[in-house]
Design brief:
The chain is built from eleven helices and nine strands. It has helices spanning 4-12, 25-34, 48-53, 67-83, 98-111, 120-128, 149-163, 198-211, 218-238, 246-259, 262-268, and strands spanning 15-19, 38-41, 57-61, 87-90, 115-118, 166-169, 174-177, 182-185, 271-273. It is globular, with a radius of gyration of 17 Å.
Length: 274
Amino acid sequence: MLGQYVTETRKKHPLIHCITNYVTVNDVANVILACGGSPIMADEADEVEDITAICQGLTLNIGTLNHRTVQSMLIAGKKAKSLGHPVVLDPVGAGASSLRTRAAAMILEEVEPEVIRGNISEIRALANHSGKAKGVDADEKDAVDASNLDEVLAFLQAFAQKTGSVVAATGATDLVCDGKNAYIIHNGRAEMSRITGTGCQLSGMTAAFAASAPAEKRLEAVAAAVCTMGAAGEIAYGHLAPYEGNATYARRIIDAVNHMDEADLNKEARYERR
């Protein structure tokens, strides 16, 4: 059952270094706190090695990309790898510009992250070092449904096998896989896509879950993080009053993560394993 990873994260209280999107940095910090971790944000090249050294996990998010932070990400990523800490790469907007695509590919190749978490368009662009994306959103043509599920899973598992990473492609249906096994996750609500930063938050929380699990259980830990965010979105939506909208919904999702425990996730998670 995936709920055990909620308990482990709260028990181990991992410190997570985030070099992340400054549009959503506050929400990323708060969701890491809500799931039981502790966030620290540092993107200055002169200190990222020191900060990474005291942490248990690292998330690299290129949402507000610039050349300075790319270098900081490479330095921090290589330090985390040398210490055996899991690195989560969130290739926000890969495929939307050549700079983003090149930067994400460089981090992938030089850092070799343990987890890649993005929407399907971003992951396709990263895998191909090219592609098209609708800004930071998935292209509608990349939507996953029953007609192409097997094809998309095969692509993601081949990419996971090539990179050695756990790959999490999130959207209406979430797919989490390594080179051998996969989770097909059905939690979440469409309204979550209208809130800025739910993906960034998930990447931060994924780093906390991954840092709290042994390497051989990383696939399950990532799937647990994805289920937690999706279930929180469902619970939060159910608590909205008729006059409440995106701002309240965003806060209630973090609240739902904060109150999630092992039994809750075991009850709410909807997935199949292949």
